[in-house]
Design brief:
The complex is a heterodimer of chains A (114) and B (113). Chain A has 114 residues and is mainly beta. Chain A is built from no helices and eleven strands. In chain A, the strands form two sheets. In chain A, strands 2, 4, 5, 6, 9, 10 and 11 form a seven-stranded mixed beta sheet that branches. In chain A, strands 1-3-8-7 form a four-stranded antiparallel beta sheet, with no helix packed on it. Classes of the chains: A mainly beta (114), B mainly beta (113).
């Protein structure tokens, strides 16, 4: 049981380049989330999805797009990377009834934009 | 107000001591308050969680104290161990329509042997 898998683990982009971060979960969770983690700012929600084919904006959605074509996958896209998007990105998933289990997080993608 | 304010930013505790981390919120619609633990290079993992209908929840050495009237909650780590050294995040959410978590800014805990 792999849980939540994020690829890639590390990436360096030049300003203006695009990329897609992939998140895959094998727990049949309904909900999926993308957060970014920056020093002193905690985890901030970028986009989320409450089911296949649905997405919604979080706290800091600008500059990012997402898609959830399959229940198990949640993709985060950067169309034109900026240095301000240098961060560690975490994907998470949860059951609808969060209860005892909460979120399951992936191990993160460290992105540097130069 | 969607913020969750967390303090202190960092904490140093001697082995065997009590670690205390505090959080405060404004939105009374929040109904679920988890704490997450994160080790370097890893994603956060759920440690313990509480709902506002109880004032305290204990799991092993970890206790959440919840004060609904003050809109505050705290994590107490009893008999702190070097293996507890990690970053701790409080969070809050409301309802199960989205399960969106609003996280605090984190506390870096160092337990000295």
């Amino acid at each position: 049981n792999a849980g939540v898998t994020q690829t890639p683990k590390f990436r360096v982009l030049k300003t203006g380049q695009s990329m897609t971060l992939l998140c895959a979960q094998d727990m049949n969770h309904e909900y999926m989330y993308w957060y970014r983690q920056d020093p002193g700012m905690g985890l901030r929600l970028i986009h989320y999805s409450v089911g296949e084919g649905t997405t919604a904006k979080g706290e800091v959605p600008d500059g990012y797009n997402v898609s959830r074509l399959k229940k198990q996958n949640f993709l985060l896209g950067l169309e034109s990377a900026a240095p301000s998007q240098t961060s560690v990105y975490f994907c998470a998933s949860s059951l609808r009834l969060q209860g005892t289990y909460g979120y399951t997080f992936g191990s993160g993608t460290r992105l540097t934009v130069v | 107000q969607q913020q969750v304010k967390q303090s202190p930013q960092s904490l140093i505790v001697q082995k065997g001591g009590i670690s205390i981390i505090n959080c405060a919120y404004e939105n009374t619609a929040f109904d679920y308050f988890p704490w997450y633990q994160q080790f370097p290079g890893k994603g956060p993992a759920l440690l313990i969680a509480i709902r506002p209908d109880v004032s305290e929840k204990k799991e092993g050495r970890f206790t959440i104290s919840f004060n609904k009237s003050a809109k505050q909650f705290s994590l107490h780590i009893m008999d702190s161990q070097p293996g507890d050294s990690a970053t701790y995040f409080c969070a809050a959410s409301m309802g199960s329509a989205t399960n969106k978590l609003i996280f605090g800014t984190g506390t870096l805990l160092a337990v000295q042997p």
